[in-house]
């Protein structure tokens, strides 16, 4: 705390030089103001005396900066004989009301998990989408529109982080009752479109399945390839129903919750005996991303797979276009929005529609013929 004390000392020297009768003090982790003030309402005192005003600010560089501004404001009120205790005394309700960024974030997180069941999925969302942004805010200062706006501008424009920062800032502002909408700064970020050069052919997918010696991991590979699953979703399936036969698969949980999926190709279900369920035995008491990492680690290090498991999912999506499945239905089966689906597979969707329109155009009976 030596650095904080030195910053406080510098501020107090400035306050003294300005002939302001206010000084900044520190008690543990919190800052306060010290000045000669009139008796508090209800006090037995009858004359002014040295008293402290709690600011609710943490002992941080940002907190000291804010405390210095509050000290100058208090000094001006005293000089103008306009000081009023009602501006500084907290009501019983206000005592527990968060004021600093750290207080608001703590209450925001508590509220988040009061409205959602606390599990691996919700914790992954909190840590990945919210905590990454909130942890970069200055905890010891009062939460303001400017603090939130600076947090947004600190991220790279047109990036996924910028989109996340805008989402979190807007949610926290609404929770704290602050009038701030960062939407104009969201930018034009969209998920990376999948390049056909990155994806294996169906023949390569089959060839690599046959190279997997471990039967449970071979089954996992086959399920991802046939149903376009996220790797962690393999461990959240209605396997008892699936064992009874049929090709429709029910995903019970995962990143986007319960949904039904149909295979492309259906023949792979029978050919690879996918109804004979054999789930790999890995620890499931961890987040979805950690489960996915375990899968990726196995196929990268043990199988030496030259492409990723997510490439199998992308191939399923492209295959549905070749089958003629509507993009909206494909998006639902993949567990994401139609907008995300279109952004990821834009080239394939566009090319298919253009080709279909072109074929309809040139195959018209009255289509003009070249001379």
From TrEMBL:
GO terms for biological process: DNA integration; DNA recombination. PROSITE patterns: TYR_RECOMBINASE. One of its GO terms (molecular function) is DNA binding. Residues 194-359 form the Tyr recombinase domain. Signal peptide: none annotated. Keywords: DNA recombination. This is Site-specific integrase.
């Amino acid at each position: 705390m030596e650095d904080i004390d030195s910053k406080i000392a510098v501020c107090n020297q400035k306050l003294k030089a300005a002939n302001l009768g206010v000084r900044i003090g520190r008690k543990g982790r919190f800052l306060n103001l010290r000045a000669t003030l009139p008796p508090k309402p209800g006090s037995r005192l009858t004359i002014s005396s040295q008293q402290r005003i709690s600011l609710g600010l943490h002992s941080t560089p940002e907190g000291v900066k804010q405390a210095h501004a509050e000290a100058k404001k208090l000094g001006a009120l005293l000089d103008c004989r306009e000081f009023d205790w009602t501006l500084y005394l907290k009501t019983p309700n206000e005592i527990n009301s968060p004021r600093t960024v750290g207080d608001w974030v703590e209450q925001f997180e508590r509220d988040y998990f009061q409205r959602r069941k606390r599990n691996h999925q919700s914790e992954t969302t909190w840590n990945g989408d919210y905590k990454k942004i909130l942890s970069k805010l200055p905890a010891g200062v009062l939460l303001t529109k400017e603090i939130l706006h600076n947090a947004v501008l600190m991220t790279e424009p047109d990036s996924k982080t910028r989109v996340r920062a805008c989402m979190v800032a807007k949610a926290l502002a609404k929770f704290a009752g602050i009038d701030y909408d960062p939407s104009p700064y969201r930018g034009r970020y969209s998920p990376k479109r999948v390049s056909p050069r990155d994806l294996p052919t169906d023949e390569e997918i089959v060839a690599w399945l046959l190279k997997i010696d471990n039967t449970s991991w071979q089954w996992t590979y086959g399920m991802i390839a046939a149903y376009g699953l996220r790797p962690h979703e393999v461990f959240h399936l209605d396997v008892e129903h699936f064992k009874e036969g049929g090709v429709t698969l029910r995903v019970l949980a995962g990143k986007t919750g319960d949904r039904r999926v149909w295979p492309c190709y259906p023949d792979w279900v029978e050919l690879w005996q996918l109804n004979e369920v054999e789930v790999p035995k890995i620890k499931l008491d961890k987040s979805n991303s950690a489960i996915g990492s375990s899968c990726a680690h196995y196929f990268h290090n043990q199988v030496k797979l030259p492409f990723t498991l997510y490439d199998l999912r992308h191939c399923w999506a492209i295959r549905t276009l070749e089958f003629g499945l509507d993009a909206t239905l494909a998006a639902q089966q993949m567990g994401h929005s139609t907008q995300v689906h279109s952004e990821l597979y834009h080239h394939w969707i566009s090319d298919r529609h253009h080709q279909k329109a072109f074929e309809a155009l040139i195959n018209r009976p009255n289509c003009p013929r070249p001379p």
